[in-house]
Amino acid sequence: MGTRAQPKRIESDMTTKETDHQWLPGDGAGEIGPAFSSGIIYMSFQIQQTAFWSVGHHPGMPPHTGCPDLGLPCRVPLGKSDVNLTSLLLYLNAIGFGVGGFVTLFVCAWGDHMRYKREQYIFLVIIYGALCLPAAGLTVYNLSNYYGFIWLYTIFGVVGYLVIAWGNIFIPYTMQAAAPIEDLSAQARLDALDKIDGEGRKELRAKREMEGLKISVGGTVALNVAVVLFNVITIGISYATMDAQKNAGLYMTTASGAVCIICALLGWPFLPSPAPIAYEGRWWLLPFTVFASLWRGISKYTNAMLFLVAYAICNDSLFAFSAVTSQLFNLTVRPSIREFTAYNVAGSITTVLGSVVFMYVFPHFKITLRQWAMSSYSLVIFSAFWCCLGMSDKVAIGFKHRAEFYVFQVLVSLAGAILNPLFRVLFPEMFPKGNEIQYFGFQLVLSCATAWIPQVVNGPIVDKTNNQRLPAVVALVFFLIALGLTWWCNDVEGIAIIHREEVEELEKQATVEGHAPLLVEKVTEAAGRTNTVCSDFTSQAPTYLPNIMSPTAVADPVPASKAVAGLHLVPGTESRQYHSTKESIYALPADGQEYDRLEQQHRLIMLLFNGPVASAPVRDLLDTTGGKVLDVGCGPGSWIKDVKQAFPKAECHATDFVADTFKPTAANDIDFVVGNVLTGLPYENDTFDFVHMRFFTGALKKVEWPVAVKELVRITKPGGWIQMVEPDGRIRSERGITPAIEDWNTRGMRGSLLKRGGEPNAGPSLAQFLTSAGLANVEDIVASAPMNSKAGAIGEHMVKDYRSLITTLAPILSQSWGITPDAVVEWGFGVIAQSETLEGFHNFHTAFGQKP
Questions:
Q1: The CATH number of the domain where 681 resides is what?
Q2: What is the rounded CA–CA span in Å between residue 808 and residue 817?
Q3: Can you tell me whether residue 515 is helix, strand or coil?
Q4: Given the DSSP bridges, would you call strands 688-694 and 627-632 parallel, antiparallel or unpaired?
Q5: Per-state percent for the chain, helix, strand, coil, to nearest 5
Q6: Could you read off the pLDDT of 705-753 as tens digits, one per residue?
Q7: I want to staple 654 with a disulfide (CB 3.0 to 4.6 A). Which of 334, 619, 631, 808 is the partner?
Q8: Stated pTM of the model
Q9: R_g of the chain, CA atoms, integer Å
């Protein structure tokens, strides 16, 4: 079974199709990678160089005399006093982490409940890039530029944490898209989850984790490849002149900021836009309530929190440890800009190769992501231990030789190449979906409580002892704690908890939708068709609406003369003509006003799918030899008339529930008969070359769809084709949807249809219906109609049709939801207005298959 998408089609909510053009966080990583690398590396490098050559001094020497001696500590100004240069960098990191965590507490708490998450991310990336722009103008080694870089470096770190928190949220959306069940009804999702116990659940987890690793590793690779390219250019520039050799890093920092901004603007349209979560409380309290709920969640999602805290401790300590080793590298080796850049390139290349190898190796070994994380922690533990060895003057190793720095640059980078991608994959599997910003932001918020500790503890230690390696002891302790917490974490249990919660929530939704009671199918031999008995279901339906609410109703054929005025006991329908009052779930009229709407709807579908016939083989058949074509549920005959006009050789037939529905052509060249697809169409087996049926979503109950498709197959010739067209039923938007639209998607027409026993997800299920009926060469084409009257002819048709449909169904929807018809119209029209503002759209499915 294949699926094709029209070029004009847009997708939202990270459905399966969205993975066809996978937006990678790597795209975002590629744009921020050069800025991230240049900003962190060259801003700190310039602070150190300015200290060495201008504003610093050795202990006992006058201020601003520089630090020319490799073996002596370097002290630099900080406010009205001076501190050890290594302590300064540790303090700046502590400030960045602390302020970043505090700001993230507020912003990330609001983020999941705000619209335009994509736009917020782009805005932060632009700010991130803009902070790099001044670098090229601060090349002179003086006190003002020294403080300028201190401010830029600190603010750059704070904004960077927000960018990371936003960028991470897209990975779990893509993981869900790898094995999606979100477009199904609550009962269908519940059924799907019930089927993935044991080995099936392991397969689902493996599939999602592998997809998540692809995205996460893609981001890592994109970031580091961009870093390598920019660093190589930096080395090249350094060969131009002496001035270029000294300032190449700053020039490339400014360039990377410009590239970051440009790429952010270009990549904007390609990012998914996750929908916001409704919130009606006080927004100023939200950060505190979210933070409190996340802490309370420690008892509920213990494994997620253990894994998170371990990662946060290691990540923050590694940042401090890397600052120490970088400072040791500068003090021990005193590298040129070329070697300093090459040293960092070695780490980036290791990260690229290590992450790619890890991604390909992971599925071939029975090692879980948690166990891989423990291996990564072991590497950084060994690195910190090695650095501690150098504290003794009697030991000749311990980051005292150039080669050691490069070896451990590779080891630490390899640990990060494994740990960072897997964290972004495993962590979201252990917390509730839809809270990505909060939980990923929580990692950064924890920096308020953890990151400053190694920085602030190490700063005074180095400042008082002038021993550059002492911070490695603190880092080693924290690395060991991270390893212990990860060993304690039970990832299997953590994922199982989320699975159980999802099942429980879906059970509640299914009960609301009316699917919770067990459906028991019984075949009535006399009637020769399937009836459905649903215990306790009718108790959920208003007793005053028996004709359209009965779950046991099967639409019975009626003669043409039996079309009647109004639906029984449904006020507001008296002025319209309907098919029957005989317990049918079909709630649309059968009169001239409705035929006009159907004609407009037909024009919309013709524009969306470029004509009446979607299958190329069928078009070839009708063009060359003709063939017998049948339109089931033809209504006024719009589709079959277009087929006759487009393919004059075709022998055209039409059938409908009510005879006076069909309006003959002037040439009278289409044969019409009354027929009901559920009780048997008046045609022999294997009669038609091409059978078409569309828009039965509101006419068939869930259990009747297989019956109807089976009847279509019966009358189709071997080698013939069946085409079905149905709506998806949901309003979507790449910019996210409002709570009102989400409520309409859940209740509205879809929820009312569920209450009447229908299947609102018939559109996405068409291909499965055809496949289950035994058809071959099944394809599903999905096209999007803008819910926006300003979006051309298709948008105009869509809005006009939807408004008309709401007005027509208002009396029925009012019975479903206990409100007045006028309130339904106001509700529905308000949703349309919001959809137009958000550039919303509605998907339609055309599925076709061939009878073997």
A1: 3.40.50.150
A2: 16
A3: coil
A4: parallel
A5: 60, 10, 25
A6: 999 999 999 999 999 999 999 998 888 887 788 888 888 888 888 888 8
A7: 631
A8: 0.47
A9: 33
